Amino acid sequence: MTQTAVQSWSLGLTLHLVLAVALHQGFATVAPPTVAPTTAAPHKDPSSPERGNYVVSNNGTVCLLASMGLQLNISFSSLSQNKTVQEVVNIQPNATNSSGSCKSDIATLRLTTDAQKTNLTFSFTLNTTSNKYHLSSVSLSAAWPDMKDPVSVRNNSLDYLRGSLGFSYMCREKQTLDVVQTVSINIVQVQVQPFGLTGSQFGAAEECQLDEDDMLIPIIVGAALAGLVVIVLLAYLIGRKRSHAGYQTI
């Protein structure tokens, strides 16, 4: 194989690797939820929500820890515009009261904001057989000034934020929790542990698939580039050796 052929082959291999990485990233990206057409008016999304720290105690013992930024996405009938609008509102941690309760297999975090007249409740369920937990229920009630009618929704069949007993669930990437068709919750920089706490600190973190995929991409790209350097170097050495061989004295 000539030096030019080896270099062409190495370039083609690299392009295939880069294409494979791009396809992997495309498939790993979470598709946005399908939403039925509405008459929602355009709106401007607020900045990324501030991360809040929330604690639930049971008889003086911390039983649930959560650290996350929350953003509500709600469609409702507007009084001022006389039509359906869609608003995205950040939960402000410094204006939010947290409470909740803990049982052996159910843990609840309630967030209340007086200024926004919003009550948001997360319920986690523990499977005592597999020692796995997940966010199983979310309820939301909101009575914002421009709402023609208060919004009150609940979904008891969710399966988000899955973790293991004694470990915390962590995800740096933004996730969208679909509650009902008209309500979803954007959650960012989340770390939560509803069961198996020892003291007031998070247990070892189990990272979400989104974070693992983001870490995998640069590793694959780096490996591809390193492989390209090795192949080009070998092609150069082989070509140089053959060139010297051609000038040997007979």
From TrEMBL:
Coiled coil: none annotated. It is a single-pass type I membrane protein. Keywords: Cell membrane, Disulfide bond, Endosome, Glycoprotein, Lysosome, Membrane, Signal, Transmembrane, Transmembrane helix. InterPro entries: Lamp2-like_luminal (IPR048528), Lamp2-like_TM (IPR048524), LAMP_CS (IPR018134), Lysosome-assoc_membr_glycop (IPR002000). GO terms for cellular component: late endosome membrane; lysosomal membrane; plasma membrane. Disulfide bonds join C171-C208. Residues 1-20 form the signal peptide. Belongs to the LAMP family. This is Lysosome-associated membrane glycoprotein 1.
